[in-house]
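Subgroup meeting minutes
Present: P.N., E.W., G.H.
Scribe: E.W.

1. P.N. recapped why we're keeping a running log of single-chain structure predictions: easier to compare across weeks, and new members can see raw inputs and outputs side by side.
2. G.H. added today's entry (94 aa).
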Amino acid sequence: MALYRLVLLTVDEEDRLLTLRAAFHAVQTPSHDGADERQAVHRLLEAESAIAESHGLVPNKSVFSYGSRKDANWRVGITYPLQPDEEERVRGLG
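Output recorded in log:
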């Protein structure tokens, strides 16, 4: 079982991602082949990569999740796998 760290985002980072996510959903089509949709998802993925890098993470190992609470406010989370030495240190804590 792999262990992951939770990465905290700033309000600006979260707002940027939620805005780009909303823009992507606004142009999404059933066939998923529109140029606007491809550009919107490209902008979202670029922003995710930039944010991961700004936190010192490898973008393709970072997992971004989008979810809403009962009050319908959307939140963004990032999880990132622990390095083997980090994992070894925390396994003894539980």
